[in-house]
Here is the input.
Amino acid sequence: MALITKAIKGTKDVLPSEVYKNQYIEATCLSAAENCGYKEIRTPVFEHTELFQRGVGDTTDVVQKEMYTFDDKGGRSITLRPEGTAGAARSFLENGLNNETLPQKVCYLTSCYRYEKPQAGRLREFHQFGIECFGASEPIADAEMISLAKQIFDELGVKDLHLEINSIGCPECRANYHKALKEYFSEKEDELCSNCRERLERNPMRLLDCKVPSCKEIAKDAPVVLDYLCDDCREHFEKVKKYLDAMNIEYQVNPKIVRGLDYYTKTVFEYVSDAIGAQGTVCGGGRYDGLIEELGGAKTPSLGFGMGLERLQIVMEAQECEFPEPKKPDLFIAAMGEKAQLKAVEIAKDMRDEGFSAVYDVNARSLRAQMKYADKLGAAFNVVIGDGELEEGKAKLKNMKTGESSDIDLTTFVSGFYSISMDEQLKDLEINGEAFDFNSLFGISQN
Ligand code: ATP
Ligand code: MG
Here is the structure.
């Protein structure tokens, strides 16, 4: 087979046989966020480039090296979103959500684009689950955000992620810290990468986040921000820790965490896994009290996190976390002949109207081939309809798991299916002595 082209480097297809894992992770994220009062927001995949230059910060790696930026046909500079916060913040302001009751709590599932070297856990198109809480200044909000991420990991059965937290202060206490950093790094200026030499003037904290090995080495002994916090920031950090303690959330204070965005303030945090190699940060976030102002709004203390969904899934697979079985059809209808096909279409519609999944062969193959197909699909029940069944108005409904068959009336098929599948459940109940599962009874095909 000679394909005319292949998928772009650093992108990944999710195949139908695998997508249930993504769906499960995504649904778990959304429902956990919803339980904390977050509502989904959807923003465009591309934005004006200046949004990210301002909203992520033009001294960051993301803006300096990683963005997919291009001119559109009208000559405007457009960028594919490298992260979710800037777009959500723009939307918050542009749509006047800042005038509604605060906080505004939003969450999203989005694709993100970064021109990075593809490797395990690092893609050029990846996906994030993110939350943003606009208009909340108290430490209880920081702790709630951190606990929501943990809630998601717990529900997914992910173990052994360690939580690292830090405070990077506010612009006031940071002025002193910047001075100390400048002094420290200036002495070693010749050994820094060209980006870092430039950052030294504009945003020396960025040097702590540089991935160039020689810069990393120098950064090891740099002054730590916690020694420079003002009283307000120190107290804020102490309270965040107190709330985490109260929720029994374990953490380590890691003064080296500064996070990728320019406008982070006070609390920053990461959940890191040791199970998946170098790209171990599954979730990162923090407070960004300066961002909304930076984008042209009034001062609005805010915070949020981004969770890398591919990395999360890699961790889950490495830890052999369970994914619920993908849904299979409730019924396969094998139809022999044109008349039977008409009946199959009719029954399938009635079944689907009642919320069951029903599948038939759209290729009208031989009975043998249809049964093989039914087996592949893993349908719970099947029924064969041919001339004989049509004439009699009756068919055999076969339970594919037990092999048992029951008579079913073709004119009242759905109610017959209902009671037969209910009987099966009751039998299961007797056999297993387990609690009767009413949900699965009334919505075999619902999740
Ligand atoms: P890293 O240090 O790994 O480059 P980052 O600080 O650039 O991460 P963030 O901007 O904080 O990452 O994004 C939040 C999360 O998104 C990360 O913790 C990670 O799980 C995920 N992520 C970031 N970049 C990629 C990528 N290129 N491919 C896959 N996932 C990514
Ligand atoms: Mg990065």
Notes: The chain has a mean pLDDT of 93. The CA atoms of residues 117 and 123 lie 8 Å apart. The longest helix spans residues 413-432.
